[in-house]
Amino acid sequence: MGDAAELIMQHEVLRVLTIDLVQVARTIMTDGTGTLVSAAGRLAAALAEHQRLEDGVLAPMLLAGDRWSALRVSEMLAVHRQEHDDFLAALRLVSQHDEPSIDLEARVFELAAGIYRHMDREEVEYLNTRVVDAG
Ligand SMILES: [Fe+2]
Ligand SMILES: [Fe+2]
Question: How far is ligand 1, taken at its centre, from the CA of residue 31, in Å?
Answer without folding.
Answer: 32
